[in-house]
Design goal:
- The longest helix has 24 residues.
- It is globular and about 55 Å long.
- It has 379 residues and is α/β, with parallel strands linked by helices.
- It has a 7-stranded mixed sheet with strand order 2-8-7-6-5-3-4, sandwiched between helices. Strands 9-10-13-12 form a 4-stranded antiparallel sheet.
- It has 2 domains: 136 residues, Alpha-Beta Complex (Aspartate Aminotransferase, domain 1); 237 residues, 3-Layer(aba) Sandwich (Aspartate Aminotransferase, domain 2).
- The structure holds glutamine (GLN).
- Glutamine binds next to loops.
- Pfam families: Aminotran_1_2.
Amino acid sequence: PNPLYAAMPATIFEHMSALCRATGAINLGQGFPDDPPHPALTTAVARAMTERSQQYPPSPGVPELRDAVAAFYGRTQGLALTRDHVIITSGATEAIAAAILALTSPGDEVLLFQPAYDAYAPLVRRAGAVPVFVDLHPPHWRYDRAAVEAAISPRTRAMIVNDPLNPAGTVASAQELAMLADVCTTHGLFAICDEVWETVRFDGRRHASLLAQPGMDARTVKIGSAGKIFGATGWKIGWMVAAPQLAQVTTRAHQFLTFTTPPMLQWAVAEALADDAVTGELHARWAQSRGVLNEGLVQAGFAVLPGVATWFTCVDLNASGIALDDRTFSDRMVAEAGVASIPVSALWEGPGPRHVVRLCHCKPPALLERALAAMADWK
Ligand code: GLN
């Protein structure tokens, strides 16, 4: 095989979704809702399509959306931001790539916490930097200061923190955030904070960003996603939020990746972000579907791991009395029961847990019931 494949493996998400498209299996693998788009998005985008420019918008994003993102975080997270803090990207994955390209140089080390979203390590490597992994452990996936410190060297440049954490659905505590911030300031590290699940929380708490910790203002790039906020993953509207001087650096990387992002989608997201009723409605829908999946799993004898956020629920196979490793379980369940899942070891390098699978809950309850029945029969 082409040796370049080793640096850029095929993503498990596309693998599982392609299998579902080919076989008709129920897709609880890749995270996306099945519902039609919210009318707030579709009416706004239709208007922007006919009434506004379809030409290159400014590279950092249309002013309306940069303002709307700043206002949204002011309202929902108490952050004091201006338009100059916000750079719009073509999805959070582009934002992650841009932040890595902007902040790391060949030979730098970047701390990644495992399980790690599968784009991080390949992007770090293709930037010429070296990923250094810090393992989190189920069932609580807590951040341990000694483990973080042990991974730091004079070449460490940055850490990537995904909070809330995909796939686990856990959220860093106030103490953990303070600890991570202290490590960054003590060792002079940048923090690339992938916070795309910030609004998808079911513990009733307001999201707290590492950006708001003391000393983190000038060294944090906070990444968000309209796809997650509005359950419209194909829209690929994301952003980086950083102190203006840092934002000017990351926008240089963005300008050479995609340069701009479709303006009509940006205007539509700007309108929808201003309306808290839209996010509230979607949140209520996901809270309900999450309840259906989690209760159904428990009834069918699956051991659900604790989590309070994201579109995902993790199942502990050992504790469920299933003697298969996660990859075998996922391969067999999609083939034999027609239900796709994500083996968490796909988000891990080196030795780690092989007994956890992730299921997506943001689906119509009737579809979840069908998946649960098929899983219970098959188990
Ligand atoms: N974030 C999605 C998930 O975790 C996957 C996105 C993708 O496939 N690129 O399911």
